[in-house]
Amino acid sequence: DGGITQSPKYLFRKEGQNVTLSCEQNLNHDAMYWYRQDPGQGLRLIYYSQIVNDFQKGDIAEGYSVSREKKESFPLTVTSAQKNPTAFYLCASTRAQNTGELFFGEGSRLTVL
Amino acid sequence: GQNIDQPTEMTATEGAIVQINCTYQTSGFNGLFWYQQHAGEAPTFLSYNVLDGLEEKGRFSSFLSRSKGYSYLLLKELQMKDSASYLCAAKSASILTGGGNKLTFGTGTQLKVEL
């Protein structure tokens, strides 16, 4: 079955450490997205990519970095420059030419100790 | 800029009908989504409206008025499992996004269904 796989599901890190969240999809979708969700807030867009080897900053890109070397993969690195990294991170993908309905992964919960 | 407003919380009774409203101000608007999200889980797609009017899908219906920047999600015959957060999201596209789609989400409406 096709879908989006995020790993790890839970992650703990110490302050000052970088951490990379994995996102893989086998839906043959062109576009991929990273969102962050905090309690009482909506999903906020971090980065998105419409095509391989290209990506754009979203609304809250500071302290994050991404790469899109393969169509199937869109990893997110949370760097030490991100001031409040503790959050629920959601990866999503969509076919570029249709309604744009997002298909989400199960999410990764990052806690900074 | 992008701005989406929806109520923070709502409570309704099992078997009843509830309407969750959403207003939006989005440049380059070209569609409105509703997603359901249970606690600790990923959002799942409920509905999509691009033209004015009502879209019905089983117990759930969604309405859009582009001229008013307004949408609502209507849930009928409420069940306990409908207790969840309901996210309104506006789709936009512009040259700034390379012509691609970008979704801006509201904060979500936490619906509690009671006996």
Overview features:
heterodimer; A: 113 residues; mainly beta; 0% helix; globular; B: 115 residues; 6-stranded mixed sheet
Description:
The complex is a heterodimer of chains A (113) and B (115). With 113 residues, chain A is mainly β. Helices cover 0% and strands 49% of the residues of chain A. In chain A, the strands form 2 sheets. In chain A, strands 2, 4, 5, 6, 9, 10 and 11 form a 7-stranded mixed sheet that branches. Chain A has a 4-stranded antiparallel sheet with strand order 1-3-8-7, with no helix packed on it. Chain A is globular and about 40 Å long. The model of chain A has no long low-confidence stretch (mean pLDDT 91). Chain B has 115 residues and is mainly beta. In chain B, the strands form 2 sheets. In chain B, strands 2, 4, 5, 9, 10 and 11 form a 6-stranded mixed sheet that branches. In chain B, strands 1-3-8-7-6 form a 5-stranded antiparallel sheet, with no helix packed on it. Chain B is globular. Chains A and B meet through strand 4, strand 5 and strand 10 of A and strand 4, strand 5, strand 9 and strand 10 of B.
